[in-house]
Amino acid sequence: MIDILRCHDVHHRYGALSVLRGVRLTVAAGERHALIGPNGAGKSTLLKLIAGEERPSGGTVHYRGRDVTRDPVHRRARAGIGRSFQHSTLLGSLTVAQNVSLALTGGRVLARRTDRHRRAEVAAALASVGLEGQAEVPVAALSYSQCRRLEIAVALAARPQLLLLDEPAAGMSGEERGGLVELLRGVPPTVTIVFVEHDLDVVFDVATRVSVLHLGTVLCSGTPEQVRRSPEVQQAYLGGRMEEVHGEPGGA
Amino acid sequence: MTSLATTHPATRPRLRPAVRNATAVAAGTLLLAAAPLYLAPYATTTLTRILVFGLLAASLNLLVGVVGLPSLGHAAFFGVGAYAAAFSALHGTSGVPALLLGMAAAALVALVAGAVAVRAGGVFFLMLTLAVGELTQQAADSWESVTGGSNGLYGVPAPTLSGLVLDQPATTYWYVLAFFLAGLLALRLAATSATGVVLRGIRDSEDRMRALGYRTTLVKLGAFVFAGAVAGLAGGLLAAQQRLVTPADAGFETSALALLAVVIGGTGSWWGPCLGAALVIVVRDSLGATLDGHGPLALGLLFVLVVYLLPTGIARIRLRRTAP
Amino acid sequence: MPTAQIALTAMVNGLAIGLLLFITAAGLSLIFGMMDVLNLAHGALFLTGAYLAWWIGGEQQTWPSLGRAVVAVVVFGAAAGGLLSLLTAPLSRRSHLEQALLTLGIALVAADVLSALFGDDVRATEPPAGLAGTVTVAGWSYPSYRLALVGVAALLAAAVYWTVERTSLGALFRATVGDRDMVAAVGVDPRLVRGGVFVLGSVLATLAGLLGAPIYHARPGLDTTILVLALVVVVVGGLGSIRGPLIAALLFGQVESVGRAVLPGLASFLLFGTLAAVLVVRPRGLFTLAPGGRR
């Protein structure tokens, strides 16, 4: 298998606070790679560094064999790195369809595409997340779980090769989480997914590989089964159910 | 509020509001075009000034209302356009070429200023646009060989159009109206096109737009330069109408008046800022004699009142108007 | 005068202007950093200080009249700061634009009132005896007032730095920036902190106006000139630090002084050029906090 993403010895600090201390992470093409760990372990920061929103204080990030450590966000996005946001940043004054269609043009401001062609693509993207018929609704009128699903539709519409999801199940009810799992399982294998998630049921239902972050380093990495059984992980922090350990999602 | 922007729910048939809008626009244009036929020359001149100032306010609205870039120094580009057009007219080239020159000069200055201000972003954008406006006025005041110093450029010849000298209130009015409509149309096209959706996307969430591959700083700079060019066009029209350009035209009071017009008129439509501009000009002109040079006092009090009396905040007015 | 003497005078001048700018910008930065209010009436405060220096200190200041002027300027600055704090308090949850519009409105009103009170003429004031004229040191002559100003302004700048960085008062101010609720939890009324910051920031501006009066001379329009310089210093120096604005102020003091001496017509271009050049090299200003520390 080809590695689509390789983080080598990544460090990151905010002022005096060291958040990541030498993270090594390798993601093979087609993987569904979950990042788990307690609050403050550096999961969201790692996603930001991969997406390019922040530059690491040390180490390198390689994407498809190329060093992208110093590439700005938009260049990585055009190279195929897509992401969803933990706190919804949907474009509130635009319609559902406009949100999706902005992702379809892939960052080209003067893109010319026939309206009919685009409308079909928008409809397909919305249908894939169960938002049929909502195309012309303003985003401000959507419910929370509809927003979360639109979030994923937008991320997928950009046709990423590497999709970064920041807590896709946050705030969802049990039933909605089931729908989300189905949705993520339906993503074609050409799209590699790296996701941060607190809900272990979602993690073990979706992930093909799991990395555990603890205090800014990767504690262990393996198949869900290996991670579940690793005595190291058990001892370090699987003592109780994970949700109880982390409490509220958020933080670094 | 029936704005010109396409904010109508699509559950209704699309044609009807479009037809209604087109009718309203056509009727409004006719009414404006015929104005010199039923207005006294003095009123026509006032209306000309309103159009000039309305175009400035509308170009500022592209920044404030669509891109979310509240500029405190937009008159800088208005002033640069006015000076460039007046300079060109005084040196033998008036009319449309002078307007184009004014636009180009304003766009160039907006490119340089925007490269600094847009990149800084946030509250630094407010500070830097204010600084750019003030520095432009100071430059106009002190660069006497080009700008005529504090006297400004006076005796600007009237524009000529294929040999016809446009020096009557009515002819000047039609000349200004034609370019006002062209400028407004260009602004509206920019805001409602696919690019306009990108601009509003950046206003809503720049992070997301960047994550989707948009070079947001570049797009914002483009919008800043475009708005600056339209403000420069308005400045060129000012030179043609007023035949006089002074440093105050580039200065903070002009910027503040334009911003006030946008705030009063609302950022949700294109005619709103123009109506706001009409109100500002009429109030300023009619109070000018009574206020005895205390225009800044009235303007300042108006600002204070507007901020306090809009309890939901200017930003939220925008949201309320764009969401049905 | 030989060229070297002119250059030296311009540099001493620039140093004095730079320190004045720092004191003004520190007030602006303090109010923005602590209270998140962009106070665009700051230039008007400076100008009022300069007018008070002329009105109370007289065209030819004496030591007693200067003393009275200092008291007047501090009292006025404190009162104006308190008023600004009250006026901006209802807008604390609103956008920067709205606060900027409010303070701009206040600045316009203030400018109009000042020109109604003091007229449109330049109100020049001369420093008291002993500070007028020049002193000669090692064969070079320096304008005495500017030298004295460098000393006084440096002391004032040091006091600001020490207060913010080293005292418990400064720690309280810094805590307010981080978390406004925390201050209330410690048992301090946040409204008092707010008022205190506004008073301190405003007094710094009026004092700078008083000190700058013999150099700049009070006149209409000086308020915006100073406001723009202070804004540029804050943008370049970065928010939340004292060192950044100090270095930026010294830089722009030189640019302003040398620019006006060498290229009087093009000084504005020179100023903007320097600003642009700094921001191209350091897009986030000379000094910033942690990455992403600026929004």
From TrEMBL, chain A:
GO molecular function: ATP binding; ATP hydrolysis activity
Presence of keyword Nucleotide-binding: yes
Organismal lineage: Bacteria, Bacillati, Actinomycetota, Actinomycetes, Micromonosporales
Keyword rRNA-binding: no
Source organism of the structure: Micromonospora wenchangensis
UniProt KW keywords: ATP-binding, Nucleotide-binding, Transport
Pfam families hit by this protein: ABC_tran (PF00005), BCA_ABC_TP_C (PF12399)
Protein name per UniProt: ABC transporter domain-containing protein
Any one Gene Ontology cellular component term annotated for this protein: plasma membrane
InterPro entries: AAA+_ATPase (IPR003593), ABC_AA/LPS_Transport (IPR051120), ABC_transporter-like_ATP-bd (IPR003439), BCA_ABC_TP_C (IPR032823), P-loop_NTPase (IPR027417)
Start and end residues of each ABC transporter domain: 5-240
Automatic annotation (TrEMBL), chain B:
Keywords: Cell membrane, Membrane, Transmembrane, Transmembrane helix
GO cellular component terms, semicolon-separated: plasma membrane
Family matches, as CDD domains: TM_PBP1_LivM_like (cd06581)
Membrane topology reported for the UniProt record: Multi-pass membrane protein
Pfam families noted in UniProt: BPD_transp_2
GO molecular function terms listed in the Swiss-Prot or TrEMBL record: branched-chain amino acid transmembrane transporter activity
Residues spanning the membrane: 22-43, 50-69, 75-92, 99-128, 173-198, 218-239, 259-283, 295-314
Subcellular localization(s) per the UniProt record: Cell membrane
Main location per the UniProt record: membrane
Entry superkingdom: Bacteria
Identification of the protein by name: Branched-chain amino acid ABC transporter permease
TrEMBL record, chain C:
Cellular component terms per the entry's GO annotation: plasma membrane
Pfam families: BPD_transp_2 (PF02653)
Bilayer topology term: Multi-pass membrane protein
GO BP: amino acid transport
Entry's transmembrane regions: 6-30, 37-57, 69-88, 100-118, 145-164, 197-216, 228-252, 261-281
Subcellular locations according to the entry: Cell membrane
Main location: membrane
Domain of life assignment: Bacteria
Entry-linked InterPro entries: ABC_transp_permease, BCAA_transport_permease
Keyword tags: Amino-acid transport, Cell membrane, Membrane, Transmembrane, Transmembrane helix, Transport
GO molecular function list: transmembrane transporter activity
Family: Belongs to the binding-protein-dependent transport system permease family. LivHM subfamily.
Protein name, per record: Branched-chain amino acid ABC transporter permease
Natural source organism: Micromonospora wenchangensis
